Amino acid sequence: xxxxxxIDKIKTFVENNSDxxxxxxxxxxxxxxxxxxxxxxxxxxxxxxxxKNKNQRKCDVCQPPKASR
Length: 69
Ligand SMILES: [Zn+2]
Hints:
The protein has helices at residues 7-17, 48-53, and strands spanning 21-22, 33-37, 43-47. 25% of the residues lie in helices and 17% in strands. A hairpin with a 5-residue loop joins strand 2 (33-37) and strand 3 (43-47). It has a domain at 7-53. The chain has a 3-stranded antiparallel β-sheet. The protein has 69 residues and is an alpha+beta fold. The relative contact order is 0.19. It is globular, with a radius of gyration of 12 Å. It binds zinc ion. Zinc ion is lined by residues 38, 40, 42, 58-59, 61-62. This is AraC family transcriptional regulator.
């Protein structure tokens, strides 16, 4: 069964599972880039797939894409 995400569910997920806030107000699909606000104040774009499945839940400053550890 496919879990159907809505923008409300995503917003709740973001608030419950990260320090970031979701700024995007419409969700069109997994490939869409969503706009988040990081706890440090930076805005960053990320698809929900990456955010959720790859644990990329902060901006590139707080969580560099190629962290060595
Ligand atoms: Zn940050």
